[in-house]
Amino acid sequence: MLHLSCVSGCKSSMTTCFRALCCKGPPPARPEYDLVCIGLTGSGKTSLLSKLCSESPDSVVSTTGFSIKAVPFQNAILNVKELGGADNIRKYWSRYYQGSQGVIFVLDSASSEDDLETARNELHSALQHPQLCTLPFLILANHQDKPAARSVQEVKKYFELEPLARGKRWILQPCSLDDTDALKDSFSQLINLLEEKDHEAVRM
């Protein structure tokens, strides 16, 4: 009887394992979010996105019109539409805003005063645009590895983010190509904001 009981127990255990292996479906699909990435030429948009996609820096070419990259993360896939930042392109940015679920704005924290003023004006326009004003914003103060880089606090004050973006979902983070972990953490924070917005939409 002891022997039969042992065999029965083994068979039962094998059946349980078999069912667990066979009935286990594929892992749940990661949510995908459509984002728009804007910033002046030279701010480093293309290089940062290429870094996140593990692309060779030798293959990076500045975006003149627009490009789309699928940036994979453990808990989401970000479909990022990057728009060129040249003077003759920026006036068409708003044509590509439709369908966006979040915004990435990249600025060169070591740029000239004139370029920084232009970047501030463009960010203000984006934050107030009807198609973007309710979306989460990730604002990246890039080129922090350069000697002339302004700190996050300096950028926040100069861009007047506290009064302008009050009540909006936004994150301002320092970044550079040298610190991939910090860059990924910034995007993880953006994904959290996107998920929160999703959950709010479901509750409504």
From TrEMBL:
It comes from the Eukaryota. This is ADP-ribosylation factor-like protein 15 isoform X2. InterPro entries: ARL15 (IPR042292), P-loop_NTPase (IPR027417), Small_GTPase_ARF/SAR (IPR006689). SUPFAM superfamilies: P-loop containing nucleoside triphosphate hydrolases. Signal peptide: none annotated. The keyword GTP-binding applies. It comes from Vicugna pacos (Alpaca). PROSITE patterns: ARF. Keywords: GTP-binding, Nucleotide-binding.
